[in-house]
Design goal:
- This protein has about 375 residues and is mostly helical.
- The protein folds into two domains: about 1-120, no CATH class; about 120-360, MetI-like fold (Orthogonal Bundle), CATH 1.10.3720.10.
- It is built from 14 helices and four strands.
- The chain has helices spanning about 1-25, 30-40, 45-55, 65-70, 120-155, 160-175, 180-190, 195-200, 235-265, 265-275, 280-290, 290-315, 320-330, 335-360, and strands spanning about 80, 85-90, 115, 120.
- The strands form two sheets. The chain has a two-stranded antiparallel ribbon with strand order 1-2.
- α9 runs antiparallel to α12.
- The mean pLDDT is about 85.
């Protein structure tokens, strides 16, 4: 097992390096750099001014040199102006000469400077990533148990009315994108003019000091901006529900298929012939074996959540990791976009490693060569 983990870590490191280089190359194409120069300077800058701006800041170096500087394995660029002032990637013109570092990159903990938020990338990324981590945790706590329950109930008795009903529900949730279900939830549950909230106000359950949730004239809040610092059921439930429903159907379908296969196994038939209670057959014999395949699917949902939160966080104005990605891409913030990409790659690779290790422990028949 130790050799397997070390081998996988080596492959992960190589994969992360290759994917990061591809993203770095794409973000540093000249049209993006030209747009960056005009955003930082003047949209009416001439081509000569753009070239001078980019050249002074090391953007016109060969791609491999820039990538090495960004990683921190090569010395950062240094520019000396005609007036004698010297500045570089790792220091400004006001930095004392004896305090100027030679290398400053990812390996040194320097993620660069965000041109949109006017702050260090690490200081900008950390709180947004924590906010999305909170959202993903709540989604997993709702999505995984609900999906497993639906899948197990549907797979216990294949072909029954319950099976057909739950399978239809699972397919419907997976077929409905987040931007559709999110808009529906806002209109039905978070509007003071449409949906359930006006009815509850009319019935006296909302709109007074003693409301159902004690918040006002809507059942839920359609914006999750305040949930970043103070998450409550009122302002945080709709984005959690929107993401959970979309991923729940896929896990439920996989669980149902695995449960159906296990329930037809020979040892299950033997247990039935011995007179074991049906509930004991499901819980003690079938459930553990049926969860092997869904476990892998559940772990692979975590990278998908990083993509799903981009839509949901933008829709509900929840300023997390997905919202930050939209801001970085929309404003051509190269350093921030690179940092977001690196974090995404790391999360995906670590999740796959945990999935492989967990799959081995859940299925003793698997042997690592």
């Amino acid at each position: 097992m130790g050799l397997f983990i070390l081998r996988r870590l080596g492959v992960m490191l190589l994969t992360a390096l290759c994917l990061t280089f591809i993203v770095f190359w794409l973000t540093n194409l000249y049209p993006n750099l030209e747009k960056l120069a005009k955003n930082q300077g003047n949209f009416r800058m001439s081509d000569e001014a753009v070239t001078s701006f980019l050249g002074d800041r090391g953007y016109l170096q060969p791609t491999y040199d820039k990538f090495g500087e960004w990683l921190g394995v090569m010395p950062g660029w240094v520019t000396e102006k005609e007036d004698g002032k010297v500045f570089g990637r790792c220091f400004t013109a006001d930095t004392p000469e004896d305090e100027r570092p030679t290398r400053c990159g990812i390996l040194q903990g320097d993620w660069g400077f965000s041109t949109v938020f006017k702050a260090n990338v690490s200081d900008t990324l950390a709180p947004r990533l924590a906010a999305t981590g909170k959202l993903m945790l709540c989604v997993l706590l709702l999505m995984v148990p609900a999906a497993l329950i639906v899948g197990v109930l549907a797979g216990m008795r294949e072909g029954s009315k319950l099976d057909r009903s739950l399978s239809t529900f699972s397919i419907a949730t997976t077929a409905t994108p987040e931007y559709v279900s999110g808009v529906i939830f806002i209109a039905v549950l978070a509007s003071s003019k449409y949906g359930l909230s006006p009815l509850l106000v009319e019935w006296g359950l909302l709109g007074t000091e003693d409301t159902l949730f004690g918040k006002g004239k809507t059942l839920f809040l359609g914006s999750a901006t305040s949930a970043v610092k103070d998450a409550t059921f009122w302002n945080f439930f709709l984005p959690v529900l929107t993401i959970s429903l979309y991923g729940m159907g896929y896990i439920a379908r996989m669980t149902r298929a695995s449960m159906t296969e296990v329930m037809t196994a020979q040892y299950i038939r033997t247990a039935r012939l011995k007179g074991v209670k049906f509930s004991d057959i499901v819980l003690k014999h079938a459930l553990r074996n049926a969860l092997i395949a869904p476990f892998t699917v559940i772990m692979l949902q975590i990278p998908w959540l990083l993509n799903g939160v981009v839509i949901v966080e933008t829709l509900f104005n929840y300023k997390g990791f997905g919202w930050l990605l939209v801001q970085a891409a929309g404003n051509n913030d190269i350093e921030l976009l690179l940092a977001v990409s690196v974090v995404s790659v790391i999360v995906v690779l670590i999740t796959q490693l945990i999935s492989d290790i967990g799959y081995v422990y859940l299925n003793p028949r698997i042997r690592i060569s």
